[in-house]
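Journal club prep, notes for RB
We'll compare a predicted complex against what the paper describes. Inputs for the 6-O-phosphono-alpha-D-glucopyranose case:
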Amino acid sequence: REHRLFERTKGINGLEKIIIRDRQGRSFEVYLYGGQVTSWKNEKGEELLFMSSKAIFKPPKAIRGGIPVLFPQYSNTGPLPSHGFVRNRFWKIEAHPIPVPSSHHSSSALVDLIIRSSQDDLKIWPHKFIYRLRVALGHRGDLTLTSRVTNTDVKPFNFTFALHPYFSVSDISQIQVEGLHGLNYLDQQKNRTRFTDHDKAITFNSQLDRLYLNTPNKIRIVDHKKRKTIVVHKEGQIDAVVWNPWEKKVSDLGVEDYRRFVAVESAAVHKPIILEPGKEWKGILQVSVVPSS
Ligand SMILES: O=P(O)(O)OC[C@H]1O[C@H](O)[C@H](O)[C@@H](O)[C@@H]1O
């Protein structure tokens, strides 16, 4: 049976999605709604991202799972709706993208998406922009999201940003997040009060919602039960968010769903990005899964 490497098809509720496969049987899916990756599978067909059992695939609701794009505002840090608005917009496929400069990923299993500020967007955020998102499957099955934002306006603008992957884990109480030891973070459950993390690794036994500042490029999620480590590599985004809601009520999340995911986000929040007219900002998130003991 022939496996199409690029497929554009209808997903849940008729929303359009793109499926990209490679010859090793790995794949990912992206919905044009939100420009949102909703699935990423390894060569064994195992799903590496989490999708809520109660996810609502109905605009204007955001899809609870996969990798939402949060732009031009992270969370409630400004006047816009929480997490900005591109996760609630329809993106397009960019047929002939301008080449990604100095791209070190010579992958062909990829898709280029694009969104431009609409007239309605300009009413709530008066800055013309183009956001280009390339999603690519690498030779070792890693997934890379390259974001490029261009200021197409005549004046500078500021934005905050995050990519919000919901990583699938065996059991939230069996994992730890490494790489943030000794760093300062803003506790988002305590009005963004600043603390220093003195723990060697983050473990989870209640709700946790932290914005880590000045973080290294690599963060690891060690899943002891699965004997796998998810490696989160980021460029151009100095902050990182770690979130799990635990038993806090989230309407589009199943009761036990919190046990099966952790969100580790690449973010640019504490110091907003300033973009001059005609200039482009670029950020990369690369995720991979490696064996661990
Ligand atoms: O419910 P949402 O708007 O999708 O936000 C979901 C979560 O996103 C981030 O991880 C924030 O740190 C959390 O404070 C927030 O609850």
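Talking point for the session: The longest strand covers residues 261-275.
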